[in-house]
Amino acid sequence: MHVHKRYQDDVCVLDFAGSILLKEGGDELRDAVGALLYDGNKKLVLNLGRVGHMDSGGLGDIVLCRALAERQGGSLKLSNLTKGVKNILMITKLVTVFETYDLEEDAVNSFRISRLRDNAGCC
Fold first, then answer.
1. Alpha helices in the chain (DSSP H)
2. Which pLDDT score, from 0 to 100, does residue 70 have?
3. Domains of the chain, earliest start first
């Protein structure tokens, strides 16, 4: 598992390459998300476009990361889902739990749209 972190404005994008399996990749995923949340990053996008395989253990790690983000007042969104990742989310019905986007740009922009929507009713 390879993880690369980069920023688009105040949104942190984590690019993953490899597999997220019960015994492979989950630690790196949890560590990366946990460190970002600890550092105060609240807007996270997981770019899964280069994830070849994911099993139920890997899916559990992503669910855990989402829960961690929400507990810290943040949000975690998924982008560039491979066919295999998309299938496992659909089979488990977790596709209804996560905000998923075909394009990373759409996931990043969704944070801006949310912020505009939140600010519209403030006055």
1. 26-38, 56-71, 83-91, 104-120
2. 96
3. 2-118 (3.30.750.24)
